Amino acid sequence: MTSFVKALILMISSATLLCFAHSVPQVPCYFIFGDSLMDNGNNNHLVTTAKANYAPYGIDFPDGPTGRFSNGRNIVDVVAQLLGFENFIPPFATARSDEIVQGVNYASGSAGILDETAEHMGGRICMNQQLTNHAITILQLVDLIGNGSSARVRQHLNKCIYTVAMGNNDYINNYFYPEYYQTSTLYTPEQYAEILVKQYSKQLSTLYQYGARKFGIHGAGYIGCTPAMMKRFNTNICVDAVNGAIIQFNTKLVTALGDLESKLSGSKFIFIDPPLGYSSDFNVTDKPCCNISTIIGEGLCAPNEIPCDARENYIFWDEFHPTESASLVDGARTYEALSSFYASEPKGSFPISAV
After folding, report:
1. Is 201 noted as a catalytic residue in this protein?
2. 3-343 in CATH: which number?
């Protein structure tokens, strides 16, 4: 862990959750696409087992259970705080018109690159639908800041940071779930990674066409080391077959991002490596902090049960998702990786027109 990241963690740990900063944000807007690692409430009203809007989720968050799959802040909350936004980036499901100028969070628990991923869990907002939701936001922005002109909105979006984190569920809730999906019998890990990255590249190209230029793309995590996947494979060590498939996906993704950057004029793609390990400050690295439900979706907390006390010592909150403490580390790493996007960006944003 770099000294810069350590300093960021110290700063963000002591910052209030209710008011982040009194200065202008370092970029005018921040848009978020992803899965449950980023979701902050988009799944709350869906018919799905991928929900986190109940206690003990949010036990360390001032608003309680909001739909975040954590005891407190998630990774993008930390990034938004470090970027200097006054409030967390709102979920698309509830974002007001006066909020969307500074960004929207489209992430959805169980979402994947492929439309069919996690269909056994019920409702979810896959990457293609998240793109559709972003198009809806852009139409709203045309009225809010463009005075009817899409060109002015595009100028605004060109300055925004876009972070995207997809691929985890295409393995957790597709390729490595043969009870529901045939992908692991139809494709080798390499072939499947090629299919995912090809589709992902098209989706990122669509974001570019909408006006995105500054992309922070999270690599898929080493999900073979999550308690849920170790339980699924009946082992107490990381599942090499799962992590090996993830490495193939990330390797192909890095190459694809380089190709996109060379083809899409003015674009910049930053690949954000998944963490290989954490500071020794985390004493519990293979067990969840909350009691796991046997009724609700796989690996999620049992409703209304008391979690562990020393949450700062745990990496995993439930069997898939990190604690707030781990997200402080990952969020600071992400912020550092994105530094070229905000270091040279002039401060300020378009005013909201009267509506």
Report:
1. no
2. 3.40.50.1110
Euclidean distance between CA atoms 312 and 334, whole angstroms? 20
Which entry of 36, 108, 325, 327 is annotated as an active-site residue? 36
Residues 134, 156, 218, 321: which is the catalytic one? Answer: 321
User: Sorting pLDDT into bands at 50, 70 and 90, what band is 148?
Assistant: confident
Please name the residues in contact with 329: beta carbons below 8 A apart, sequence gap of 6 or more.
1, 5, 9, 275, 278, 279
Cβ atoms 88, 74 nearer than 8 A: no
Tokens linked to 140: 């709203």
Active site residue 36: yes
Assess whether pLDDT exceeds 60 at residue 46.
yes
Q: Does the global pTM surpass 0.70?
A: yes
State the amino acid at position 151 in one-letter form.
A
Can you tell me the distance from the alpha carbon of 262 to that of 264, in angstroms, rounded to the nearest whole number?
Answer: 6
Read off the pLDDT band of 280 (50, 70, 90). confident
3-state secondary structure of 11: helix
Considering just the CA atoms, what is the radius of gyration of the chain in Å? 19
Give the CA-trace dihedral at 290, 106, 173, 242, to 10 degrees.
-80
334: left (phi over 0), alpha (psi -120 to 50) or beta: alpha
